[in-house]
Design brief:
alpha+beta; six-stranded mixed beta sheet; Rossmann fold; 2 domains; five-stranded antiparallel beta sheet; globular; OB fold (Dihydrolipoamide Acetyltransferase, E2P); 21 strands
Length: 350
C-alpha cells in the first residue's frame, strides 16, 4: 500500500497571455488517501489546475505540495517525471503498439525484470484484467482500456493520481461500472486522487470530497452529502442538483413564509428578514388539491425517467413553476390540479 500523502494547493494563480486570470488564488486540500472530485462548468479552471499539479504548466503564483514535498512554489517547479504523480487521461491514451502488460509496465523504470512482471500482474489483477497482459489495446473495450490506464498510473506507486474526465468516452451503460472499479482500485492502493469532471452525478457518487470551482476559485469543498444538503449559495445548489428556490420572509419563530407555505429552517435565523429558501425536489410531495395544509397548484409538465419522474407544477404567488421528484407510479397529468406539501427543512440564503 502507498504511503499516504495529502495534497495542498494554496493561492494558485494562472493567466494565459494578457487575458483574464483562469485561476484566481485557488486553494484546495485533499486528505491523504481520499478521492476528491473537482467539479465545475467549462472554462472555470479545472483542467488548468490539473495541468499545474501534474507539472505540465507553470503557475503564475501559489504553491502545490504533496505531503511535505513542494512541487510548485516560489522558485520551484519540478518537472512532471519527478513529481511521483500518476495520470489517467481522457480515453485512456494507451500506447497502441505496446501490449497491455507493456503499457502497464511503461513507468516501472529502475526495477528488475521479475519485479516489473510481478507488479504488472498485480496491477492488472487489481483492476480486474488478470490474464489480459498479452492483448493489444485495440482488442479491448473502452472500459477495459480505462482500467489499463489506471493500472499504468498506479504501477509506480505514485504519491498522487490525477484523473482527467476519464469516463467521458464511455456510454452510460458502462460508465457506472467502470467508475466503481476505479474507485475500488484507488481505495485498495490507498492512493490520494483527484478526479476532474463536469458531471455532477459522477462527482457526488464517486468522490469522498467534492470541490466546486467557479471563476477560478473553489467556492465550496465538502463531502457529497454536505455539499448537496448544505450548498454554500443558490448557484452551487443549482449546479450540483435540481433546486427549488423560493423568495421568503423569515418570521420571528424561525420559520420562512414562502409560496409553498411555512417552511422550517435548518439553521436558526437572526431575527425577521428576507432571503431565498432552498429546497430539493424530493422534499416536495404531491397530495390531493384539497388536503389540509397543502398549497394548490396546476401540473404543467411531467418528465418520466423510469426510476422516478419530475413533475412541474405552477403555484399561485410564485413566478416560476416548481419541480417535484416523484418515485413510483404517477397519478397526475398536465392540466390537473394538485396539492403540494413540503417535507423537512429548507436552508436560507441572502
Amino acid at each position: 500500500m502507498n504511503e499516504l500523502h495529502e495534497l495542498h494547493v494554496e493561492g494558485l494563480t494562472k493567466s494565459y497571455g494578457a487575458g483574464e486570470p483562469v485561476l484566481r488564488g485557488l486553494g484546495l486540500t485533499v486528505p491523504a488517501g481520499a478521492l476528491a472530485a473537482v467539479l465545475g462548468p467549462s472554462g472555470c479552471g479545472k483542467t488548468t489546475l490539473l495541468r499545474i499539479v501534474a507539472g505540465f504548466l507553470r503557475a503564475d503564483a501559489g504553491t502545490v505540495r504533496v505531503g511535505d514535498r513542494v512541487l510548485t512554489g516560489p522558485g520551484t517547479h519540478l518537472p512532471p517525471e519527478r513529481r511521483s504523480v500518476g495520470i489517467v487521461p481522457q480515453e485512456g491514451a494507451l500506447f497502441p503498439h505496446l501490449s497491455v502488460a507493456r503499457n502497464v509496465a511503461f513507468g516501472l523504470t529502475g526495477v528488475d525484470r521479475a519485479e516489473r512482471r510481478r507488479r504488472t500482474e498485480d496491477m492488472l489483477d487489481l483492476v480486474g484484467l488478470a490474464g489480459y497482459g498479452d492483448r493489444m489495446p485495440h482488442e479491448l473495450s473502452g472500459g477495459q482500456q480505462q482500467r489499463v490506464a489506471l493500472a499504468r498510473a498506479l504501477a509506480p506507486r505514485p504519491r498522487l493520481v490525477l484523473l482527467d474526465e476519464p469516463f467521458n468516452a464511455l456510454d452510460s451503460a458502462l460508465r457506472a461500472g467502470v467508475r466503481a472499479d476505479v474507485r475500488a482500485a484507488l481505495r485498495a492502493t490507498g492512493a490520494t486522487a483527484v478526479l476532474v469532471t463536469h458531471d455532477q452525478q459522477e462527482a457526488l457518487s464517486t468522490a469522498d470530497v467534492v470541490a466546486v470551482v467557479r471563476d477560478g476559485r473553489v467556492v465550496q469543498c465538502a463531502t457529497p452529502q454536505d455539499l448537496y444538503r448544505h450548498p454554500a449559495d443558490p448557484w452551487v445548489a443549482g449546479f450540483v442538483g435540481d433546486a427549488v428556490l423560493l423568495p421568503a420572509a423569515v418570521h420571528a419563530d424561525g420559520t420562512a413564509r414562502t409560496a409553498l407555505g411555512s417552511v422550517p429552517l435548518a439553521a436558526p435565523s437572526d431575527g425577521p428578514r428576507t432571503g431565498t429558501v432552498l429546497l430539493r425536489p424530493e422534499q416536495l410531495r404531491l397530495t390531493g388539491p384539497g388536503t389540509t395544509g397543502a398549497v394548490r397548484g396546476t401540473v404543467t409538465d411531467v418528465r418520466f425517467y423510469g426510476h422516478d419522474a419530475m413533475v412541474t407544477v405552477s403555484v399561485d404567488g410564485h413566478g416560476d413553476p416548481v419541480g417535484i421528484r416523484v418515485a413510483g407510479p404517477l397519478s397526475v397529468r398536465p392540466g390537473e390540479e394538485t396539492g403540494i406539501r413540503v417535507v423537512g427543512e429548507g436552508s436560507l440564503h441572502p
